[in-house]
Every structure is written in C-alpha cells, then in structure tokens.
Amino acid sequence: MPALLAAMDALTLEQDFQAFFKKAATSVCKLLNADGAALIILDERREYFEYHLFEGAQEERLNPYKGMRFPANEGIAGRALKTKTSIYVRNYSSDSDAMPDLINGGLAASFVIPLISSDQVIGVLASSWFSEPVDIIPPQIFLLAERIASQIAVACHREQLENQLRSLVSIDPLTQLSNRHGIMQFLDQKADQLARHNRSFALFFIDLDGLKTANDQWGHEVGDNILRDAANRLRDVVRRSDCIGRLGGDEFLIIAECDEHNLTILANRFLQALRIHFGTGRKRGRISASIGIAFSPSDSTEPNTLLRKADAAMYSAKQEGGDRFHFASRIASNESEKLISAVDIENALDSDEISLWYQPIVSLRNKQVIGFESLVRWLKADGQLVGALPIIKAIESARGDLEIRFGNWILQKSAQQISEWKQQDFLHDIHINISARHFLHPSFLQELQKIHTQYHNVCDSLIVEITESAMLDDMERARRIILRCQELGVRVAADDFGTGYSSLTYLKYLPLNSLKIDRSFVTDLPHNQVDRDIVSGIVSIAHALNLLVVAEGAENEDQLECLRALGCDQLQGYVISQPMPLEQVMRWHSVYLQRNLYYPDRGASVAKLSAISKHA
C-alpha cells in the first residue's frame, strides 16, 4: 500500500491529464475489482454534471454515456455533491437516486467519490460494476481509492486552471469568440490542412458599420452590448464546420470551407444577421456590416495574404456605404478608380466627359414606367467607364465649391433633359440625388428658381432625393427648403430610408412627397420575415402620412411580387433594367411597351425584360 501511494504521488507529475487519468483510474479499478471508472465534472455554473472520461475493462459499455449531462442535484453524484462524502451502492437499481439510463445500461453497483479541491466539489469519480461485486470490499481499500481520487482532484483542478489560462490567450473575453491569436492560429492550421488535400475555403473579413457612432453618442456600454449581440448572431448562422473569431474592435473573421458557388449565399446570410436595430426613441440606431471575401486557392494559399486581401475588399465595401460585400478578386479591376481626384472631376466636367445615365422606376400596380433616376457616369478619353461611387467620393473629399458646382450641373442637365423629353411627348419624372451640403446651401434654391424661370413646366417632373442626414442636420431649415421646392413644383423624397435614424419625428414634421426604402431591406425578400415586417411597417407609416413608397434594389420577380403584395407603390432595380445611357432610353422604353410588360403575363414579362436590359 505505501508503494502504491508513492506511485500515485508520482503520477501527479504527468503533464498530460488524460494519460494521468488512465493510470489513476486503472489503479482504482484494480483496487476495487471494478469494471470501470468514470470522471464526471461539474460545469462552471455548478448546475450540471457531465461525463468526461472513462477507463476500465467495460469501457465500451461506458463510452455511450460520454458527454451525458444531468442536473447537479440528481443521481448518486448529486448526493455525493450535497454530502461531500463517498457513497457505495451495492445494488444500484434499487437505490432511490438511481438513474434509469444507467439502469438500462446494465449498471449493477457504483462507488462515487467526490473530487474536492479548495474545499469545493468539482466533480466525482464513479467506479462501476456491471455485475454485483462478489466480495465484501474492506474499508481500507475504500480509503485508498479515496486517496487516489484526491490526487485526481488535484490534477483535475490543475487541468481546469490551465484551460482557463489557455482561454485567456485565445478567447476574447467580451464575446467569448476566438480572439485574434486564436483565430489566426486556426487559420494557419486550416490553410495547411486544406492545401494538403487540395480543398478550397474562404475568409469573410467583417467590419461593423456604425459602431463608432453608437459608442460616441450612447457610450461604450451600448457598444459592448452590440458587439456581444453581433457575436451571438454570427454564432447562430455559421455552420458547424465554420470557425469564427473577433480580430479586435468591431472586426470579425469567419473561416468557412466551401466552394465558390456558396460565397454569395454565406455572405448574404452574414449581412442579414448583422442588420441590428438597437435602442428606443431618439436613442434608436441601426448597425450593419461591410464584408470582404478572399477565396483560397484562387486569391492565395498563404494566410497573411488572404487576410490582407479580405481586409482590402472589406474596406472597398465600406467605401461604397457598407451593408454589402466585395470579393478580393474583383478589387484589382477597380484600382484605377481609387486614383480619381477632385481635379480629375473638374477637368472631366470642363471636357464634357461626365454624363447622366438613367434607371427606370415603374408602378407596382401595373408596371407602367413612371420615371427614371439619373446616375452620373464618366466616360474617360481612353474609353474606360467610371461609375458614380468613385466620382462622388472624389467630390466629397474636395475642398472648395466643387460639390455645389457638380450638384447644380446635375440640376441643369436633368431640367434640360425633362424639357427635351416633353417636346417629344415623353412624359416621365426624373429623380436626382442631392448631397446634404448642397441641399442646405443657398445656391440650391437659387438654381431651382433659375430652372423654374428658364424652362416651362419642367419642375413638376423633377424629384429631388435627399438623405436623412441632410434633413436632421437642420430640420427647420430643411422644412423651409422643402416647402420652397414644392412652391416651384419640385417634389422631395427621403432617400435610403431605414439606414439612418428613420425618425418618425422628421417624417411627421417635414412635408415630404415620398420615401425610398433602402435596398438592404429588399435583398432577402420574400424569404426573410424580419425584412418583410420592416417593409410592411414602413409602407403603413408612409401611407398614413400620404407618402408614396419607392423600393430600390429589386433583382428578381419574387422580390417584385413581394413588394407589390406589401403595398409598395413604385419599384426600381435590375429586375426592370440596369442604368442605361441617354441614347438607349427611348429604344428601351419602346420595346418595353411593345412587349406589353404588364401584369397579365408576369413570368414571361420578366424574362423578356431581362433580355432587353442586358442589351440596353
């Protein structure tokens, strides 16, 4: 016996806990002539026991119970926890605390020893017999088994402390996700593993939109709650095989083994999960996400390169307003656009290289074309076509009056186009986007007055779209400007509704004519019930205030039908047509009418219309 005790003391030096338990449990089984021994541990809240490890001749009969959980006040283990004493049950099935699952598993007898560390039970060691013990077990053997169990308790406590230390190194304490160290370690392992098996995977680099504003306006406690909520939402939507971590701040990384066809599906799932509304009343806000996607092996197989490319793609998505995703593979083609400066735009205006393209807006009642939104394009001398976003970005970063000059140019070009169309009996509205700074600038109303004087009956076909920020910056001034617009016949719409504060106060106070539901609420229709409810609520409120509702970003017939069913008045999106240059508008409209694209033949209509759009 002394020699055995000395051996058990030496076992505590074993660094691998499972190897230590195997040796210790084997010793207990030999002492008691038991069929096996199980390590059953309390959870952190001390609410449940869970079977962890087994050892013994009947291990195959015990293994099915690995991972089994039961309340801490049940079973023989619960009694041992309460009394802090060992309990020997020679006839298990007749005991009042016997568990049916274990009886059905053939357990005949059990000796449960509480594992005590720092005067607290952390679990139990349960020795098991699957036939009634033949011999009477001497008390000194029980005492020796308890001595061995005390060594197991020491080693078990040490293992728990080491796990906690490992968690501090690799777990983010706020979200309980892997931290930067942990997720990067996993990325290295995953990249090596999948490269060896020639399999593909993706990095989703996620950055929350609007968290800094939430922190600044409502404090870091609100920001921390948003981060925890975001982490939980991502946990709910990632697949079991995906790995998720927080890189720091408001950045998350998801590593997903998938093929290229699933990238868009996963990205949309993550975007939807991170459309977070928080707060109430004036303290209400909305968070979204910008996502960059790098795909291995096509983008790279080297982890740091993949991370850098995913980061760059995320930044590109954020520069376009957020609540969207970009692929790293498509960023390189846009590099030239990033080099555009305010000087380039001024020169392009002087050289008459800037033009307006037009995207149709139709009635959802009968699909009749109501108007067009004008969108800026720059056809460079070398033939390259530059879209609106880099142009606007360059203008917004400029000093001086370029933003005002550019906005007035759009007003004049749109008025001129309305006038020309009316002369051709082409009676359609034109929607134009006006920046917040331009809208509040004195020259805006001056330019409208000039247009009203210069062109006959043009202003009644002009619709100015402004964002919530323009109205909220100075609501009283915005009200006066809107009223003056309407005196001149110009209608005013709230653009991108739902992405800012979406305050009912300004909807009630400002004499708007319509509002435009942001595309982020349209993308997942009709399948996303939350977005359906949001759109339905916006429509109800708008109609109660006598406002028309325009939905933008619809790409398919299902979205169109859903928006019509929810009561939206008008629709804009690729399901109708992509933006087109001026010289194609008349032809597109003529074909649209000839094909009779109204509701009697909905399915055929969309197919025909898509074909037209691609050639327009």
Structure, described:
The protein is of the alpha/beta class. The chain contains 24 helices and 22 strands. α1 (2-11) packs parallel to α6 (139-170), α8 packs antiparallel against α9 and α15 (402-423) packs parallel to α17 (442-454). The protein is elongated. The termini are far apart.
* Percentage of residues in strands: 15-25%
Unreliable parts? 597-616
Count of runs of 4 or more consecutive helical residues: 24
Mean pLDDT: 83
Please count the beta strands (DSSP E, at least 2 residues each): 22
Radius of gyration, CA atoms, in whole angstroms: 34 Å
Strand order of the largest sheet: 13-14-16-17-18-19-20-21
Terminal residue distance? 93 Å
| Inertia-based shape | elongated
Query: Major sheet, described briefly?
Result: 8 strands, mixed, barrel
Structural class: alpha/beta
Q: Helix share of residues?
A: 40-55%
Keywords:
24 helices, 22% strand, eight-stranded mixed beta barrel, 22 strands, alpha/beta, 616 residues, six-stranded antiparallel beta sheet
Characterize this entry briefly.
The chain is an alpha/beta fold and 616 residues long. The protein has 24 helices and 22 strands.
SSE topology sketch:
Blueprint: H1 2-11, H2 17-32, E1 36-42, E2 48-55, H3 59-62, E3 69-71, H4 75-83, E4 87-89, H5 100-104, E5 109-117, E6 120-129, H6 139-170, H7 180-196, E7 201-209, H8 211-218, H9 220-237, E8 243-248, E9 251-257, H10 263-273, E10 276-278, E11 285-296, H11 303-319, E12 324-327, H12 335-338, H13 342-350, E13 354-363, E14 369-379, E15 385-386, H14 388-396, H15 402-423, E16 429-433, H16 436-440, H17 442-454, E17 462-466, H18 468-473, H19 475-487, E18 491-497, H20 504-509, E19 514-517, H21 529-544, E20 548-552, H22 557-565, E21 570-572, E22 580-581, H23 582-594, H24 602-615
Parallel strand pairs: 11-12, 14-16, 16-17, 17-18, 18-19, 19-20, 20-21
Antiparallel strand pairs: 1-2, 1-6, 2-3, 4-5, 5-6, 7-9, 7-11, 8-9, 10-11, 13-14, 13-21, 13-22, 14-15
Helix pairs in contact: 1-6, 2-6, 8-9, 15-17
